[in-house]
Structure formats: structure tokens, C-alpha cells
Amino acid sequence: MTEVTEMVSKMWWLGGALVLGVAGCAANADTGFESSDADEMESAGEELAATTQPIGFGEVKVATIGCTPECAMVGSKSEGWRDGCSGKLLKWALCSDKAAYCGAIGTPNEGWYSTSGSLIANAHCSSQAKKNQLRAFTFQGKKGQHVDLYVDGLFERDGGAEPGLDTRARLYLGNKKLATSDDTTTPGWILRLNEAPNAHSSNLSMDLPSDGEYRLVVTSKGNRQGSAEVVVKTPDLDYCAIGEDFDEAIATTYFGAHNFDSEAEAKAWLAQTWPNADRAEVRPGPCNEPEMCNKIYAPVCAQTAQGVDIEFGNPCEFRNAVLADAGDETPQESKGKFVTGHCGDIDLCAVVLVNYPDNTDTYVYAMNFNDQATAEKYVADFPGVVSSSITEGACDEPRPCPMYYNPVCGQVANEEPKTYSNVCVFKGAVAQSAGSEWPSESKGFFHLGGCQ
């Protein structure tokens, strides 16, 4: 994958969580009290004297520890990787959404690599660096504001063969140290550049004691060098993107919800995933905050994330079930769909054969339904219908076919084309692919004669 492709493919990771720049993880962080640690620096003087970089909630940054390559001159024609100590140019590249890590350790290919996997420069980078190097960031906080500080050492590949930088984070208010965060196993979150949480990840969760400027200091743990991410996140910045769309062809309403940490990312997701939706909105707060529902009884038969038919008293109750499934964490999401009316005990299978103009193939569509009217509408909306049927029972229930041999070459969904003994047998294969759940569907196409 090229650097440009990798940059585009990872843009969706730019969640609203504030990536400050380095890794570690939480111990006793919820209390706000500092824990003793034999490896802790002898004095806070160096930490407090460190040059700090202001950062606001929602910004994305990567911190480097030691002489790790840094992405510099971002946005200019000179953008590329430079030595973190000397500033010497190592490689021209689009690198703004990447970090560097020491890879292929102990082999002839040992060197600095981008998180996209491309080589920056060959080097003996696994050699020890200066002990407890640090980076510091400041942010403005308010009394009582709840913050989650995530730190994640980059980069862990191949089952941990190349572990991430081990780091520790500390939070200061003025000269007073409030908490130390180190080595947690808190699951469920993945930062922008790492593929999964690793053993060097850290989490510090607390309510800020007063208004003021807070200093987040991240140090390498021991004689290590590398890169890391730091995220400062507050629940107050959560946003829920909601999309809803009605498909007239099958009389089905689709509904989805996705948690984000920034309004901009939520809007971008809606524009990409629900471009023509009947409803597309972003609201503050996590998705699991329910909508207010009236008491009107207007039953719908729905499927949520569990994938089984559930009857709800009205569409609002269904939407709240989907919102609850999405939860309150990023990047969790959920989706579902419903049709009006009760969930029926009798499934129906609609099968349609269609000929399109200027196409020598005949197309076959099969779909499960729970009511006759919706199934009939589905059939009627196809142009060029050659034949159709609506039969009781789920689509994947076996149905008899005549035994004569009049072969057709057919392809079901994404399967490879193969020869079927006759059209009826091929229709049965498409129906089998549709399964037994409402409103699952499958399709295929065929032409007369066996496959060559």
C-alpha cells in the first residue's frame, strides 16, 4: 500500500478524541492520587521545565521519543521524514497521519518504518536511548470536567514481535502532580495509528479539580525510543450521527447510529454512508440517550443488531433499541430495519425472473417477507418481469423441481459460475442463498447452455 493510499484509508480514524501524542496506561488513575513507582524520575523538575505544546480537544498529534523520525513540513512540497534529533531529511513522503517505529529488529532490515509499513531508513534503531525522555502538552480544563487520557505506544505488529514504545503519562495542575498513568488492560478503544490496544496502553480517567491549564507529560519508560499517541477526551464532546432511509421497493425503513468524538467526523460519516437518507442528523451526546416516544400503538416488525424479528409498539421504540445498542463509546455503532405491522409467523419467499434490455442474461431475485402485500409490491416494482412466484415458507426451504435436463450457466451472488440442470434448479440455488430471515435477499443471473 502506498503512503498516499494509507493516508486516505486511515482518515476515518481521526475521531474526535484528542490525540495528544504518546503511550502508557492507567494505574490507580480514577482516584487522581499518584502511585509510587521505583522507575519514576528522581525529580519533577525536568518534567516541569520541558517545553510544552498547547493543544485543544479534538486535535490530532503524534509524539516521538528520542531520535525517532518525525513528520515535518506538513502540507508543503517538502513534507517528509526527518531525524528527530538532527533534523536531517530521511525521506520525502506524505506522512501527516503516520508515526515511525523501529521494525525488523535483529535482522538485516532493521530500521525505521512508517505505520503504513513502508521503510523510512535503515538504522540500528533498537539501541538504547537516553533514559526517560519526555514530551509535554498543555490543555485548558474546567472544574468538574471529566476527562479520559489515553496513551498508546506505537507500534505493535506480528503478534507483538515488534512491541510498542512503553511510556508513562503524568498530569499536572501548575506544579502539583495529580495522577500517574501506566500499563492498563482497559479494552474497547483503539487509537488512530495502532491496529489494536497493546500492553503499553494506558488510561487515566478523572474529574478535574479546578479551572486552569493542565500539563500532560509523557515519558519513555526506561531506555526506549519510538513514537506514541496521546488522547485527551471528554464525554462532553461526544456526538451521535443518525441516519434513516425508507426503501419503497421493499417497504422497509433502515436506521443507523454511530458514536463520534467530533461533529465534523460525524457529518463526514453521514455524507458517505447515508448520502440520500430521509433523515441525517448529528446530535450532541452519546447515541444511547433515548428519544422521547409517544404512546401511540403503531406496531412494526423489526430487526436490530441481533438479527432476529422483534415486534415494537411503534417506530420510536425501535429506534431507541438501536440507539441503546450503539452505546456511549466511540467508534461503536448499530443499525436495524423494520416494516410496519406485526411480525408474522408465516414467512413468504418471492422469486422474480427479469430480462433487462440489451442484456442476454436473465436475472433471478429471491427475498424473504412476512406479509403478502409487501411481497407483491416487491415483485411489481421490477421492470421486464419474465415470471414470478410468492410461496409460503422461507426462501431456503427446499422446493421440488422437474428432473429434465436443459442446462443453464448460472452465477449466484458472489459465487463462481457453474452449470445447473435447468432453470428451476438455478432458481432454487438463488433462493437458498437468501436464507430464512426477513428481509434477507439474494440474486443471480444465468444464460441458456452449460458453462464453457
Describe the structure.
The protein is mostly beta strands and 452 residues long. The protein folds into 3 domains: 232 residues, Jelly Rolls; 103 residues, no CATH class; 101 residues, no CATH class. The protein has 6 helices and 28 strands. It has a 6-stranded antiparallel β-sheet, with helices on both faces. The protein has a 6-stranded antiparallel β-sheet with strand order 25-23-24-28-26-27, with helices on both faces. Strands 1, 3, 11, 14 and 16 form a 5-stranded antiparallel β-sheet that branches. Strand 26 and strand 27 form a beta hairpin. The longest helix has 12 residues. The chain is elongated, with a radius of gyration of 28 Å. It starts with a helix and ends with a strand.
Number of domains: 3
Mean pLDDT equals 79
Rg value: 28 Å
Please identify the structural class as seen in this structure.
Answer: mainly beta
Quickly give the CATH architecture of the largest domain: Sandwich
- Determine the strand fraction and express it as a percent band: 35-45%
Poorly predicted tracts of residues:
1-43
From the N-terminal CA to the C-terminal CA, the straight-line distance is 36 Å
Q: How does the overall form come out from the CA principal axes?
A: elongated
CATH class of the largest domain: Mainly Beta
Look up the CATH topology of the largest domain: Jelly Rolls
Number of helical elements: 6
Sheet of most strands: 6 strands, antiparallel
